[in-house]
Amino acid sequence: MKIGIIGAGAWGTGLAHVIARGGNNVVLWSFDGEYAHFDGVKLPHNVQITQSFVDLHFCDVLVAVTPAAFFRETMMRFKEFYNAQPIIVCTKGAEPKTGKFMTEVLDETIKPHKQNIGVLSGPQFAGEVAHGVPTGSTLAGRRKIQKSGQQVFNKMFISPTRDIIGTEICGVGKNAVSLISGYIKVKGAGENESALYMTQAWNEVIKIGLKMGARLETFSDLCGIGDLLLTATSKTSRNFSAGMALANGEKPVGTVEGLSALAALNDRARKFKVDTPLLLNMSKKLSK
Q1: Among 3, 121, 243, 270, which is most exposed with the fewest C-beta within 10 angstroms?
Q2: Residue pLDDT, tens place only, 100-146
Q3: Fold assignment, 167-286
């Protein structure tokens, strides 16, 4: 298969490695022609770097990995080249200005058919994926997405589900909870308090998700507890490290998805009349 990847940051390039390793030809679209490099591993020969959306037109499946802050802009530019292929969203997060999830942005931009929309989410650090360390993900979508995804991600363990909204809110939620966990790691009294905050925050994410129609079991899948355990406990996680930096009065490095995730979750909580005292309180603290 020929797979088009939109976004050549760390996660997009990491996916290019694992998808190419599975025998697929990869077209990796990069805004500026650059891509992420990982020590000790070369980009496979069957990965083509491009700055032209035209090269994605005849790909069998598309994988969208553009950061949430630039997702809408990128999809609007790509719209005229979209060829009704299955498109699997691998971006975890909410749009900073609107709080919308990436599938909602897709619906407002390129407008793919419901059967062609999928979401991949799970416990993955890009560097480990690029190096071939075993990893697994939840793949959400209808039958067409499941069939395509199994071929695209044949070097991953895939847990299938039709729960797109649950899989997406897990990705948004883990960003927020990871940020909170990093903050409490510094400001809290000890490991007990860290565990308390992480559990309470995740329970509030679940309550929002259930009101939005998510399935309870999704939150204990790879996209849920799996990703949470990875990113809410490790300094390798950008959001966890950002939370620690904010607690120390420092400026975080790079984009902090957790801040927009917190805002989006609280917006949904208000809309669906869900009580989320911890998420609301931490949003106020972290936004100062």
Answers
A1: 270
A2: 999 999 999 999 999 999 999 999 999 999 999 999 999 999 999 99
A3: N-(1-d-carboxylethyl)-l-norvaline Dehydrogenase; domain 2 (1.10.1040)
